[in-house]
Amino acid sequence: MATTAQLFEEPFDADEYIERLAWRTPGGGSKGGAEAFDPKRLLDEFKCHIEELKQLDEKIQRKVEKLEHQCHREAKEFAHKVQDLQRSNQVAFQHFQELDEHISYVATKVCHLGDQLEGVNTPRQRAVEAQRLMTYFNEFLDGDLRSDVFHNPDKIKEAADIIQKLHLIAQELPFDRFADVKAKIASKYHDLERQLIQEFTAAQRRGEIGRMREVAAVLLHFKGYAHCVDVYIKQCQEAHVREKLDETRHSDVEQYLKNLYDLYTRTTALATKLTEFNLGSDKHTFLSKLIKNIFSSYLESYINMEREYLRTRGAMILQRYYDSKNHQKRSLGSGSIQELKERIRQRTNLSLGPSIDTHGETFLSPELVVNLLQETRHAFERCHKLSDPSDLPKNAFSIFLLLVEHLCVEHIDYALEIGLAAIPSSDAKNANLYFLDVVQQANSIFHLFDKQFNDQLMPLISSSPKLAECLHKKKEVIEQMEVKLDTGIDRTLNCMVGQMKHILTEQKKTDFRPEDENNVMIQYTTACSKVCGYVSKQVEHVRKSMDGKNVDTVLAELGVRFHRLIHEHLQQFSYSSMGGMLAICDVAEYRRCAKDFRVPLVLQLFDTLHSLCNLLVVAPDNLKQVCSGEQLTNLDRNLLHAFVQLRVDYRSARLGRHFS
């Protein structure tokens, strides 16, 4: 169940869950990784996994039943306690009713007394208030605000109450006689209103809810109260965003980027919904400006943090993989010397150094590739949402370059270099050829890379000048990898031919000049049998490692080299009549093996070679007729003559006269 628990992580995504399970199953990927795609093996793995999930479900169900039983027991106990409390509550309620009746009686008496006192006190308070306002009005009229209430910041609440009332009184005064004093009162009104809003903002930032309540109660009677509401909403948004982002900005960049993307996405979605309401003619501009004010400081530094995170995360994923293989990355070198070695290797196929033994390891990991592509996919999604439209193509291109660096250069290209270094020399015996496995996995990985390029990067840059740069970079990467793939395949084919040549060294001269011409029981020689067996395995290996037209191209090249080797090999022997028949049988077996290539050119070459071998057994008088046959008529006469010279009776039968 450990595997299930690892796959079953939050947030759960069913598609990704199945995909990861398939990747972990040998033979379960799109091309099966190092093994061929095996649907039955994948089905068995799914059935086994389903059984594990059923066992987990039964375990959880038993736990649920246990908890339900415990819940029922505690519910009964709670019910008994509630009944006891209800009885106690009923007694208390009776006492409360008696107390309430007594309080009501006393309250009635108090209210009556209060009404009598208010009738006497209210006119007096109004007169005092009017006198006080007249005193302050005279100060504005004289232009000299002497009262401490207008200068003491601690009395701003009292000053606001006075100025608000004076402002209402000033509205009723005639403009021609009181224009100056009305202007002074209005100026002080707006000044106090501004101070109150600033005090409200400062209190909100300090988290002083009580002070905010006091200031808001004062501002309630001012015209700028609506602005106070706007400030409150803006501050609430900024405080929430700051709380979610600042705590992870430097401690957990991955979580910071996720939070930023989530908050910005939800905020823009909310703004879209708000546009459905009547917020004025410039509602879109207002909402956009509000969002920009909240997130501007975070969006300005977004792409730098995104790049730094991807650079660090990619390096960690790569290092974790190589550590799991107990592999210390080799320095592949740089500069003019390395470039010179690369050019020489491409042109001569020389190894330029001792080969290394990778023990069959390709150093390519489908799981690593999935992780890198997944991180990049999330980065493209964030880039699309968080980048300014004018910077989007540039930012997307920078993310693409990091993917190229980590996936194509640090992983695929490195694996190709290691694979090239591991290819043995062409004269090595019993060499294990793993480079074709590297080719297979590299092709599979690049298909995934190409899919992400088309599905996620192209929509972000398709209408910008960065499109040309991206396509050029992709072409450059492809060409660099193709050069190394072609070099590795070519050297691998040389190794195959070298192995065939080594097998053919077992061929004895007596194979084609048997001592007893009348007692030859074999259909073809042992060396021929071993070569054909080896070639068939390599053909199958090529088919599993390549796709599309590459299969035919590589098999055609291997077939041509195979034919050249056999052609040169046959010219090293002399043939008796029975030996010539054995040579024809060998070539017939080689031709049967060549049919596995499914390449017309290769089959044609071996058909021609088979016809050439007929020259080893044909009667001397029929040589001219055979050389004029359909298969041989277009061949060079010197080549035909060279084959005839291999006959042991060449001199005795004076066969050379047929070519003079």
From TrEMBL:
Record's keyword terms, sorted: Coiled coil, Exocytosis, Transport
GO process annotations (BP): exocytosis; Golgi to plasma membrane transport
Species lineage: Eukaryota, Metazoa, Chordata, Craniata, Vertebrata
Domain of life: Eukaryota
Span of domain Exocyst complex component Sec10-like alpha-helical bundle: 239-658
Membership in a protein family: Belongs to the SEC10 family.
Record-given protein name: Exocyst complex component 5
Pfam annotation, one family: Sec10_HB
Coiled coil: 43-77
Classification via InterPro entries: Sec10-like, Sec10_HB, Sec10_N
A single GO cellular-component term on record: exocyst
Every Exocyst complex component Sec10 N-terminal domain range: 39-146
PANTHER family in alphabetical order: EXOCYST COMPLEX COMPONENT 5, SEC10
